[in-house]
Each structure stands twice: as C-alpha cells, then as structure tokens.
Structures
1.
Amino acid sequence: SMGFSVLDGPEVENEYYNFDALNIPAEHPARDMQDTFWLDVGSGVGGHLLRTHTSPVQVRGMKKLALPLRMIAPGRVFRNETERSTPGGTTSLDSSATVKSAPAGQRRSK
C-alpha cells in the first residue's frame, strides 16, 4: 500500500462534493446536462448526479483523515459524452492525493 489509504465513495453524488467543494464555477460547461447525468432523488429536488470524477472521494478523505495523508480514490465515473466509447457513459478512474500540511491560515485548532 506504500502508506496510501484506499478510499471509496458514493457513485450518486451531490453537487457540493462533485463541483462546489472543488471550486468548479456554476457556469462551467461540466455542469451542463450534456456533460453530466443529473438525477432527481428522493423528494424530486435536484442537485444529485452520477459522479463525473473521483475527486469528491478525496474531499471526503481530507475531511475525515488526519494530516499528513496519502490517499487513492479508484472508482467508476459517469460522463454524458459522445466522444467516450464506453457503454452508458461509464469508465474507471483513479486519482490520488498527498497532503503534508494545511496552509497556515487554514489549520485546524486542537
């Protein structure tokens, strides 16, 4: 494992973890219906989607794990693209991150 935590996360994601927490602006093309599989979940309120990358898993990992951290987030992702030749817009993606410490102004107090 070389010191990396292997993380798993939901394939049905919310807009915050898939876009907002990653500073992807509201007007970014990735949020359009032609690029993302948007869902109506539960009460019919929008804001849920099939994850387009595994970075939301990393966001959850950074909230959960102590620093320094090393993590890998493998998993299935979904993209509504005509260029992708995989059935149903699915593909596998692996992402990793290493964080040694938080910036001075963003360190958690004990």
Note: The beta strands are 5-6, 12-14, 38-41, 45-50, 69-78, 90-99.
2.
Amino acid sequence: QFLDKDEKSLNSALYDIYEKTGVKWVIIIDECDYMYRVCNEDEELLRAYYDFLISIFKGFHADNYTALGYLTGREHIKHFCGPLRAGIDHFMEYSMNGRDKMTKYFGITQ
C-alpha cells in the first residue's frame, strides 16, 4: 500500500512511507559491528555494508524520516568503519564499560 512495485532502495522506501504516513522511523541495528568482526577480510562486502549504513542514516532525506538511530555492538564505530566513518560521523557514542557518564543508564555493567 505504501511502496511502489519498482522501489529501488531501503532508503527511498523509508522516505516514501514517511511521506505517506508522516511517521518517522526508529532504526535499531543490533550488533552493527558483526560484519567487521566476522567478515573483515571481505573488503567488497564491508564496503557494501558501510554504504548501506550511510544510505539509511545520511542518505536522501534521512534526516527527515529518521527519529532515532540506535546501533549496538562491541566495537566503537570509529574502529570498525575506519577511514569510511566520515560518512557516518554524526553518531554520539556511549559505552557500557564504566568510562562514560551515561553508563548507569544502559547495558550490562557488571
């Protein structure tokens, strides 16, 4: 009902649904560093994954349709995105390892 048959990307689908409903998205990616940890030798696959992250968080009208992006993982984004992180450099990172003032509000701390 909300998508055209020839929809090309997740980014444009999220935007189209937002345009038709007026409801912004909360995007949650659990273990977002999984690809880096498991497939770190496959540069083509990693590049496609980084491009995917960039497309949904910084792509066409992403600021319009995204209310919140929440990514979990063992590694900080700066570690697993390396030089590509400039494309997704607008995240605020919090740690549950006790070195962050926000630690008490989330995660397993013991």
Note: The beta strands are 25-29, 66-71.
3.
Amino acid sequence: TSRAKERGFEVEKIGLVRPRDVLYDRINRRVVQMIDDGLVDEVRSLVQYRDLAALRTVGYKEIFDHLNGEISLEKAVELIKRNSRRYSRNSSENRFRPRRYSISSGSKRSS
C-alpha cells in the first residue's frame, strides 16, 4: 500500500449530470450511428483478434456474437444499447466518490 501524497490543497471532483432519459436517448442514437458508420465491418476485420481484452468490450462482444450466428443484428444492437447504458450508469455512480458535487448540464444540444 502507498500513502497519499501530502499536498497544500484539496482536490474536489465535479460531475456533470444529465437527466437519465436524455443520456439514454443520446446513447441509443450513438449506437445506431456507430452501426451506420460501419461497426459490423470493423468488427469483422478484427475477428482473428477477438480474444484480446480490448475486444471483449461493449460493442465488440455483441457484434462478434452476431457474426457467429448466435444473435441477430437487431438483438446485438439492443444489447449494445443496454450494456452502454449500464456502463454509463455504473461509471457515473462510482466515479466521483467519496466527495461529489453535481451540476445539471441543462444542455439542449441534440448530440
């Protein structure tokens, strides 16, 4: 174990928080955009490397399952959306502990 470095200041973490429905909508639209931009072809080109840890992540693992005939593309897309939402939720809940200040983004941008 290592000791925390003594500093003459305190670190404060600030997290931007979006309403869940807005965040989930953005995630869902981004997944569709990734598919439209060629995610399936990208994953197909990486099949020989599928056992690498970097390719056992959200998006890649679902498309590998699709390419293996285990699930439909539609099912793969739904799983990517679901798993991305879970990853986002878990990341935002754990990233700013133990001290957290949250600021609502209030953003009306669509992307």
Note: The helical segments are 20-36, 39-44, 60-67, 73-94.
4.
Amino acid sequence: PTRRSSDLVIAADAPDSFVELVSNKGMYVLDSVGEKYKSLLPPLPYYINKKPYYDEYANAYKNVFPITYSGYQSFCLRDATMAYTIFKFLGRNPTFKIMHIEGDFHIKNI
C-alpha cells in the first residue's frame, strides 16, 4: 500500500545518542540528563528484561560486538522507548490505529 498524505509517522525508537550513552555508562547515566531530554524517554528507571531475553540477546550478538550489561541495558532502552512512545501517542489519539514495524528480536519476548 502507498502511504497517504494523511497518514502519520511517529519515531518510536530511542535517540541513538541516548542508546550510545547507556551502552557506554549504564542506564543510570540517564538520571543526569535534562528534563527536556527525558521527555524523549520512558519513565526512569525503565524495565530491564530478564532471562531468557538476555541469553538470547547475548547469543544473537556475540559475534557482532562485545556483550556487556550496559550494552544490554541500551538494548532494553530501545524496547522501553518504543513501547512508551506508542503508549503515549495512543493516549493522546485513542481513535488511531498503529502499525509498528520492527525487527522480531525486539518484540519477541515482550
């Protein structure tokens, strides 16, 4: 189908700068960002998925980059931000329908 001019597109993912920050310093570094920027994020602290999600993450990416807990926290930041962004949008626009396109790994265990 073709996108109509009346269709809305929302960016649901976490900004890359925050994902990188968490990957390097851990999720609690977000406590120090300004309120303006926190509005782009889910409520802090956000949920960190437990096993088996972590094990699947580590197995899937072990040959791509070093597996660290802060890297996993940044991965969970993406999940939490996407979910919260869509939740907020639907709260303001309850009659809208959402089609979320994402790789299956991010939504597999949610």
Note: The radius of gyration is 15 Å.
